[in-house]
């Protein structure tokens, strides 16, 4: 598959590593330009591109940048993606450490993914937001393995979620459908499932135990 990755840091870098290893055709971009991604290109065989070209022809696009940077992406950044492409986002809102206060999230009560979707202008599927970057490399297991980790996914577009579940299976993870985007607070920072590396039953229980009240450490 042709996959575009916007963000080449901890998560974007490790997704580039795994997806190229699986034989996918990966284009990857950061904010500073393709010439700064030489080492990742050498290591993985991915193609480094300007951010405006990352989505070109892609069946799956992954946006994995600091949440506060989402509005900085160039207009039309997703133009040229394949018809019916799936958009994954991994973003978390860290108001105190990184992102500053965002009123639409804290006062209007938009989920972090709904806010992100509005910045990107295309339906998103939320996944990997509670997964340590290193776990993308260390935790993959074959289907059926007793210690296979399950990751929650949320989104409103069932076809896109199906595509993501299939990709996650290929990457070595089970998935748990956590519902639509307005339910995605169940997997935001500070919830029981956030950072959990466990199987399906534990993830289902953790999602059910989540509270919609934003913890104080994740308020700006
Ligand atoms: N680290 C984790 O374990 C983890 C786990 C789950 C979810 N997350 C979430 O996933 C997102 C990415 O996390 P990360 O740890 O991978 O971040 P990171 O290591 O700080 O990397 C961020 C990447 O985004 C790029 N970027 C920033 N602004 C951009 C722009 N306007 N256009 C294109 N690229 C841009 C950066 O490029 P430059 O370096 O060129 O600026 C960098 O490659 C965050 O929202 C984070 O909260 C992280």
Record keyword descriptors for this entry.
8-stranded mixed sheet, alpha/beta, 8 helices, single chain, binds NADP nicotinamide-adenine-dinucleotide phosphate, 220 residues, Rossmann fold, 15% strand
Describe this structure in words.
The structure is a single chain. This protein is α/β, with parallel strands linked by helices and 220 residues long. The protein has one domain: Rossmann fold, CATH 3.40.50.720. Helix content is 30%, strand content 15%. It has 8 helices and 8 strands, in the order E-H-E-H-E-E-E-H-H-H-E-H-E-H-E-H. The chain has helices at 10-21, 38-44, 95-99, 103-106, 112-120, 133-138, 158-171, 200-209, and strands at residues 2-6, 25-29, 47-48, 60-63, 86-89, 125-126, 150-155, 174-177. Strands 3-2-1-4-5-6-7-8 form an 8-stranded mixed sheet, sandwiched between helices. Helix 1 (10-21) links the parallel strand 1 and strand 2 (25-29). The longest helix is centred in the last third of the chain and has 14 residues, at 158-171. The chain is globular, with a radius of gyration of 16 Å. The N and C termini lie far apart (39 Å). It binds NADP nicotinamide-adenine-dinucleotide phosphate (NAP). The site of NADP nicotinamide-adenine-dinucleotide phosphate has 27 residues, from helix 1. The site of NADP nicotinamide-adenine-dinucleotide phosphate (NAP) has 27 residues, from helix 1.
């Amino acid at each position: 598959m042709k996959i575009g990755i916007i963000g080449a840091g901890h998560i974007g870098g490790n997704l580039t590593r795994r997806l190229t290893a699986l034989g996918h055709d990966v284009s990857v971009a950061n904010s500073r330009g393709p010439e700064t991604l030489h080492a990742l290109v050498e290591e993985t065989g991915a193609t480094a591109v300007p951010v405006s070209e990352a989505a070109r022809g892609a069946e799956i696009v992954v946006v994995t940048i600091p949440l506060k940077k989402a509005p900085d992406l160039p207009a039309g950044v997703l133009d040229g993606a394949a018809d019916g492409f799936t958009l994954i986002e991994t973003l978390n809102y860290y108001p105190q450490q990184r992102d500053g206060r965002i009123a639409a999230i804290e006062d209007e009560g938009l989920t972090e993914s709904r806010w992100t979707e509005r910045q990107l202008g295309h339906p998103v599927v939320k996944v990997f937001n509670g997964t340590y970057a290193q776990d993308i490399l260390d935790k993959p297991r074959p289907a059926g393995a007793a210690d296979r980790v399950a990751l929650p996914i949320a989104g409103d577009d069932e076809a896109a979620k199906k595509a993501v579940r299939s990709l996650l299976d290929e990457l070595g993870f089970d998935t748990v459908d956590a519902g639509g985007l307005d339910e995605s607070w169940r997997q935001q920072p500070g919830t029981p499932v956030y950072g959990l590396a466990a199987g399906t039953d534990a993830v289902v229980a953790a999602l059910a135990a989540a509270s919609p009240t934003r913890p104080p450490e994740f308020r700006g």
